[in-house]
Amino acid sequence: MGQDNDAAEVSRLRQQVAELSRPHHRLRSAGAAVLLVLAFVLAPLAVVASWTAGIMGDTDRYVATVGPLVDSPAVQSAVAARASQAVTGHLDLQTVLQQAAPQDRPLMAKGLGSLAAPIENAIGGLVQKEALAVVSSSWFHTFWTDANRRIHSTMVKALTGQGGGAVQLTDDSVVIDLGPVVEQVKQRLVDSGLTVAARIPQVHTSYTVLDAQHIGAARTGFRLLQILGNWLAVLVAVLAAAAVWLARRRRRALVTAALAITVGVLLLGLGLVVARALYLDKLPAGVSPDAAADIFDQLVHFLRTAVRSVAVLGAAVALGAWLSGPGRRATQFRSLRTSGIDATRRSAQSAGLRLGPVGRFVHHWKRWLTWTVLAAGGLTLALWSYPTGWVVTGIVLAVLFALTVVEFLDEGAQPGDAAPGDPAA
Question: Does the keyword section mention Membrane (predicted)?
């Protein structure tokens, strides 16, 4: 009998080897491997495309990205310095003397003498102080939000040819005018007693947002980005699903695909760290490194959030696929989980809990209920506009909790239930 069993096992193994050696199986395995590599390569690109399309295509998203920069001390100092330079250029002592009465100029110039430098420093300090007060005020918060909303509309207009009449292309560039900030500084100087500031002419200090000399290439790239942003992530999911379908061991392929996507987006996160270091290392002279660092961090904030979200989701899918497999440790984990749920159910029943028809219903429709819970979790994640890592974690935990509830309510076949072959069944 033992020899017959051994012969049967050898025959089964030979049959499996022969099956695996067939050309179409080799082709399917090769195709699955190619699709997995493509999913791995395209996953980080899909995250970048979705993030960029969201930033460029959604004004509220763009404002939410750059809005917090108004509270950055480094950015406030940089803007205040830009505004104070524009003001102090019209407040030097020579300008003050020119604004004095002609008969008073010689006497004032003689009286200033060696006090010129300290006075100029004092004026510069006062201007810087008032400029900082302006950029830290609630007025500047409103100005910053409105200005960036106009900037976004301008960029979208320049890149797509659509939008309102607020678009301004000046000297081959899209600019933001800090003139209102300068006016606020002038008014505060006048209120502080430096009435000569009222004679400063209207000053326009522009900040270039977009170089319009290459607007044709940028417009083409933006249109491509809009397409990729909407469909590249779907393409990655389709490639991963096709790889799993082609693979002979589909559960293992699913684990591999999920881990490949997770590793791909984590490499993107590492690339952001390297890009930040290179960006700060090559700043032009005169640019505040702290302000540049805050701007970079804020601009890629949602990109880093997307990286964490996809990484958490990929790890959860890989772990779920592995735990549902036939492996020894996965089986031990499921047995331990089931034993814990059974013990909890028995304790509740000892305390008087009676599930009745609910338990029988859940037992009969358990498979459908399980798939419904999984589908609801996937649909929630798909419909969430911009899921964060915590949102993905919360959805995963909610799905696990719902599956545990289904398992708890499943009392199994009870005495007196109709057998599958009975007419009542």
Answer: yes
